[in-house]
Amino acid sequence: MLGLKLLTDPRWANIAESNLEEILTDHAWCEQKAASNAISLITQNSEHEDLVHELTAIAIEEMEHFKMVIDIIQQRGYTLGRERKDDYVGQLMKFAKKDGSRNMAFIDRLLFAAMIEARSCERFRVLSKNIADQELAKFYHELMVSEANHYTTFLNFARKYTIDVDVDKRWKEWLDFEGELIQSYGKKEHIHG
């Protein structure tokens, strides 16, 4: 369904589980950044009422996820660490087109968001199926479903609002790029690392 070119090695879940405080901190900040991204898209494209409505709901949901992760961190006696730089997201941002039309930049920003949601969904699936901690396995299964919904929302808006972009062609380019990029990741206790 997601079209990802390379799936995460299930052994990555062992790396994540070996340092739950780190993966949970990284995850919390991923949720905060996802909320900020939705708000940014709203701010830059407020003329689209349906987008404003849907992305407001996503921003709220992402902040609810942020709170849920923080609650788990606190319940387990961990500390929310400082925000981490996400090299994977930085590389995706460099791939996004910024030099074309306003519509092209808008569509690529939606595809950028869809790509992150797709990979997060896939990683949450790996965690839900491969970690021994049953509470977290259930938690990550629930979030996997949510991320899949966000992925389709961003992709559907790209298809709806394109003017001068062949969205299916550009999405394939995103998938190909991400398939190459992700080969360098999956070795750290980070959601995208």
Shape: globular
Number of helices: 7
Helix-residue proportion = over 70%
Return the string of H and E elements.
HHHHHHH
How is the biggest beta sheet arranged? none
Could you give the count of β-strands?
Answer: 0
Give me the secondary-structure category. mainly alpha
Low-confidence stretches: none
Q: What Rg is obtained from the alpha carbons, in whole angstroms?
A: 16 Å
Oligomer: single chain
| Strand coverage percent | under 5%
Return the average pLDDT rounded to an integer.
94
Amino- and carboxy-terminal Cα gap: 22 Å
Structural features:
single chain; 193 residues; mainly alpha; 7 helices; tRNA-Hydrxlase_MiaE; tRNA-(Ms[2]io[6]A)-hydroxylase; Ferritin-like_SF; Ferritin-like
Descriptive account of the structure:
The relative contact order is 0.19. The protein starts with 11 loop residues before the first helix and ends in a 12-residue tail after the last helix. It has 193 residues and is mostly helical. It is globular and about 50 Å long. The mean pLDDT is 94. The protein has helices spanning 12-17, 20-44, 49-75, 87-95, 102-130, 134-161, 167-181. InterPro entries: Ferritin-like, Ferritin-like_SF, tRNA-Hydrxlase_MiaE. Pfam families: MiaE.
